[in-house]
Amino acid sequence: MEMHEYLSELTGQIRNKKAKQEVEREIRTHIEDQAQVYEQMGRTRDEALEEAVRQMGSPVEVGIDMDRIHRPKNNWMVLGMAMLLSLAGLLVQYFCIYRFGTENLYRINQDAFARQCLYTFLGLGFMSILYFCDYSLFSRYGKLIGGLFLVSIILVCNLGMVQVINGGHSYMKTVMYLFIPMYGGILYGYRGTGYSGVIRSLLWLLAAAYTSFAVIGGGIGITLDVMSVCFMMLMYSLFRNWYQVKRKSRPILGLGALALAGGCYSYLGMQPYQMARLRAILSPWAYAREEAFQVVVTRDIMKQLKFLGGLTKGGTPEGTPIHLLPGAQYDYVMLQAASTWGVLAVGILAGLLILFLFLLFHMVKKQKNQLGQLIGYGCVMILVLETGWNLMLNLGFVFVSTAGLPFFTYGGYHTVAVYGLLGILLSIYRYQDLIWERSPKMKAEDNHVLAQLGRYRIRIEKMDL
């Protein structure tokens, strides 16, 4: 059988177009390499190709095996929990907040619950789109996507297309979550470029920090979370030696990057209200009537919580966060739910969310593709940070406003951004056997390597049984 006939019959068994192209290219390379060996043994070119094809075995069997290995996968458990938490979030918002009315809520109108339902459906749609998109596009077009993303934010903010509150576009802060997977692709694209790759990666991080701090404005907490995650991703790529720099220089580069980040923050300077918040964090009771009043009120509410049943009496929100704390629909949803349903119900909801985050982390940890692992860790880390800060806020440990709690808090930008991250995480799982990773330092004689997964290389070779 001729080589092109063999490849045509083999790839005819493979349903995925991406896998079909890659498998055909790699098996063709393997056959040609093996034919060269036979030619060196004294056979003619035609005889060598014929023998190399014969050694591959049945094209139908090989094709079926390749189709079984290289096809999209669905993580039904994660998908099911995402749907469950989406429904739970809407139920919590309606029964614990909006059924009491909106007169005590901050910047909320009467159709708030309907709007949140719309935001959730839009988020699910965005998640579905990213779920079916190949996440490896970030490795090939990460710089283009990241550049367009930052420029778009700058244009939207400077053209006055979004609402300005307290001198900033604070509601857009969580949009920067989506820069995290883009930054992962940018870091991956600079592999093997030496010290220039490290410098360019830092410049991208500074550009994102400037966009978030100076253009979007508003509170700095969310920006610091995003920049912290991006910085950890940079350290991951640096210590995995993606840039092929000397081992002794890696700690120095890491410390230098940290010093640069700290210097930029110092340059921005802390505003008077931020200094006041810092003092209040250190001594909340001394500022009970000023910056730290939220901590005091939160702790007072917690003292009255019941294991079963809440504080509400006669169907009124008296004594609950929506009556005593500003922005309860953004920051204090869990405390409001505990005031309405009791501690047990909130414990179950928080436990489900933490379990969901653990499943996401475990899913990413099992990835052998370095790009998928880096992007996945970044997406999970920002969700963990957001969840941790919000739960501590509801427990009265901190009082700085957070981005919210995934699935449970009100907000359009926040909801869509969270579902966007989930879509990318699901895409990483879906295409984990369809991303063909090659090291930038792979030698020419290794062209017949089918794929490289972490420190391991996979080859196709015929076994004589």
From TrEMBL:
Topological type in the membrane: Multi-pass membrane protein
Keyword flag Phosphoprotein: no
Pfam families named among the record's database cross-references: FTSW_RODA_SPOVE, HAAS
Main location: membrane
Assigned keywords, A-Z: Cell shape, Glycosyltransferase, Membrane, Peptidoglycan synthesis, Transferase, Transmembrane, Transmembrane helix
Similarity annotation: Belongs to the SEDS family. FtsW subfamily.
Function: Peptidoglycan polymerase that is essential for cell division.
Enzyme's top EC category: transferase
Name of the featured protein: Probable peptidoglycan glycosyltransferase FtsW
InterPro entries given in the database record: FtsW/RodA, Perm_prefix_1
Reactions listed under catalytic activity: [GlcNAc-(1->4)-Mur2Ac(oyl-L-Ala-gamma-D-Glu-L-Lys-D-Ala-D-Ala)](n)-di-trans,octa-cis-undecaprenyl diphosphate + beta-D-GlcNAc-(1->4)-Mur2Ac(oyl-L-Ala-gamma-D-Glu-L-Lys-D-Ala-D-Ala)-di-trans,octa-cis-undecaprenyl diphosphate = [GlcNAc-(1->4)-Mur2Ac(oyl-L-Ala-gamma-D-Glu-L-Lys-D-Ala-D-Ala)](n+1)-di-trans,octa-cis-undecaprenyl diphosphate + di-trans,octa-cis-undecaprenyl diphosphate + H(+)
Keyword Transmembrane helix listed: yes
Record EC number: 2.4.99.28
Localization of this protein: Membrane
PANTHER family: CELL CYCLE PROTEIN, PEPTIDOGLYCAN GLYCOSYLTRANSFERASE FTSW-RELATED
Domain of life: Bacteria
